[in-house]
Write a structure and sequence with these properties.
Blueprint (H helix, E strand, L loop, with lengths): L62 E4 L6 E3 L9 E3 L2 E2 L23 H5 E4 L3 H9 L9 E3 L10 H4 L1 H11 L4 E5 L8 H9 L3 E6 L5 H7 L6 H13 L4 E8 L8 H11 L3 E6 L5 H13 L4 H11 L18 H17 L2 E2 L24
Parallel strand pairs: 1-5, 3-6, 6-7, 7-8, 8-9, 9-10, 10-11
Antiparallel strand pairs: 2-3, 4-5
Helix pairs in contact: 2-4, 7-8, 8-11
Length: 375
C-alpha cells in the first residue's frame, strides 16, 4: 500500500554477499559471512589458493570461553525502554538470529558480529555470586532486573552451565523482581522458581515469536526453539502461574508483518496476558549481515523488504533516534502500530510493560561475602 518512489528503491549488488562462508561449514548458523569487527586494523578473508584448500576446512563449532566481568548488573539510561538495569549471563548467542541487534557488541571483543557472534561464546560462571554481592551493597535500591536484553539467557549452553538457574535462585531468595525475554523452551525448566516468584508478583516472562512459519524461523533463527515450542512454553509457564507475554519481535516488513494478528491469536490462546512488538532494527554491522542473508535466502524479496525498511527509517537502513528506533516512522510504521493495537484490544491483552512487578518485598542478602549491617 505504501510503496516508496522508484528512486528510493535499493538496488542490490552482488558484491554485498562479501566473503561468503561455504554453506556446509556454516550449516545451522544464521549469518553467511564472518567479516572482521569494526575496530580491527586488519581484515582477514579466507581465499582458495587454487588447490581446493577451503574444502578441507571443518564445520564451524561452538567455542565457549570464560569471562570475568567486574560487575554483573548493567545500568542504562535509555528513555525509550522500561528498565534501567539488566543482567546478561552470556556474551554472544548460539541461537544465531541473523537480525539480532546485539551482534555489534562482539566487535568489542575483537571478534566478528557475523559467525563469531554465534560460535564464539562467553560464559560468566560467577554471575550468581556477583549478583548477590551487588544486591547487598549499601544503598542498593530495588527495581526490576531485565534478563535477555542482549543475548538469550536460555540459549543451548545454559543446559550445561545453568547460570540462569543460579541467578534465579538468588533473586527468589531476596524477593527481587525479574523480567525475562527468551526464544527458548528451556525457560520451562525453571517454572518451579518462576511460578513461586510469579505468585508474589516478582516475575514475568516474555517469549519472542517472530513468525509461525517453521521453515522461515529455521533459516532466520537456526538454533532457537521452533515457533510451536515457544507457544508451548507460554502455555506451560501460564499453567505454572507465571505471568507471560508475547513479543512479536522483530516485525520484518514484507516478510513477517502479515503474521501479526495470527501470532497474537496463537499466543493469547496459549495463555499470554500481555503483548508487545519491536520493528526490525539494523544497527551497524547488522544491516550488512541481514542484507546478505536476504540475498542468499530471499533474493526475490530483497528489494521490497529493504525499500519498506528505508521508508520507515527516513531513507536509511536504521535510525537510532530515541522513540523511533523501536517503532519506525511514516505511513507503513503507522499501519503496523494500528494493526497491533487493534488486535491486542480485540483479544483483551495488555500492552507490553503494563504489568508492574513488586519491589517492596526485597530483602537484601546477608553473609556469603555481603557486608553486614551494624544495626
Amino acid at each position: 500500500m505504501f510503496e516508496p518512489s522508484p528512486e528510493e528503491v535499493f538496488e542490490p549488488a552482488p558484491e554485498e554477499i562479501g566473503a561468503r562462508i561455504d554453506a556446509e561449514r556454516r550449516r545451522g548458523r544464521g549469518a553467511v559471512t564472518n567479516a572482521s569487527g569494526r575496530y580491527e586494523t586488519e581484515v582477514r578473508v579466507a581465499v582458495d589458493d587454487g588447490w581446493d584448500s577451503l574444502d578441507d576446512l571443518p564445520p564451524l563449532k561452538t567455542e565457549v570461553q570464560v569471562e570475568k566481568p567486574k560487575r554483573i548488573i548493567t545500568r542504562n539510561q535509555s528513555p525509550d525502554i522500561s528498565f534501567d538495569r539488566s543482567i546478561n549471563p552470556y556474551r554472544g548467542c548460539e541461537h544465531g538470529c541473523v537480525y539480532c541487534f546485539a551482534r555489534p557488541t562482539h566487535a568489542y571483543m575483537g571478534l566478528s558480529p557475523g559467525l563469531d557472534f554465534e560460535t564464539k561464546l562467553f560464559v560468566k560462571p560467577n554471575a550468581a555470586a556477583m549478583l548477590e554481592r551487588e544486591l547487598g551493597e549499601p544503598g542498593y535500591q530495588c527495581r526490576t532486573i531485565a534478563i535477555g536484553t542482549n543475548t538469550d539467557p536460555y540459549q543451548p549452553i545454559e543446559k550445561t552451565h545453568r547460570i540462569m538457574r543460579e541467578v534465579l535462585e538468588v533473586l527468589e531468595r531476596t524477593n527481587h523482581p525479574v523480567a525475562i525475554v527468551t526464544k527458548s523452551h528451556l525457560v520451562t525448566r525453571d517454572k518451579d522458581i518462576l511460578g513461586r516468584m510469579g505468585a508474589k508478583g516478582l516475575a514475568k516472562v516474555a517469549l519472542s515469536v517472530t513468525t509461525l512459519d517453521g521453515r522461515l524461523a529455521r533459516a532466520m533463527e537456526p538454533r532457537a526453539a521452533s515457533p510451536r515450542r515457544r507457544l508451548d512454553a507460554i502455555r506451560e509457564l501460564s499453567e505454572a502461574g507465571v505471568p507471560t507475554a508475547v513479543m512479536v519481535a522483530p516485525i520484518i516488513p514484507a516478510l513477517t508483518d502479515h503474521e501479526i494478528e495470527r501470532i497474537l491469536d496463537a499466543a493469547q490462546a496459549a495463555g499470554a496476558r500481555e503483548a508487545g512488538y519491536v520493528l526490525l532494527r539494523l544497527p551497524l554491522e547488522v544491516s550488512e549481515l541481514f542484507r546478505q542473508w536476504l540475498l542468499v535466502n530471499r533474493p526475490d524479496s530483497y528489494r521490497h523488504v529493504m525499500s519498506l525498511i528505508r521508508a520507515m527509517r527516513d531513507g536509511k537502513d536504521y535510525d537510532s533516534t530515541w522513540g523511533k528506533r523501536m517503532r519506525g516512522a511514516g505511513p507503513y510504521a503507522w499501519q503496523i502500530a494500528r494493526r497491533f493495537e487493534l488486535q491486542v484490544k480485540k483479544l483483551g491483552l495488555q500492552k507490553g510493560g503494563r504489568t508492574r512487578l513488586r519491589a517492596d518485598l526485597f530483602e537484601p542478602p546477608v553473609g556469603r561475602g555481603v557486608q553486614l549491617s551494624l544495626f
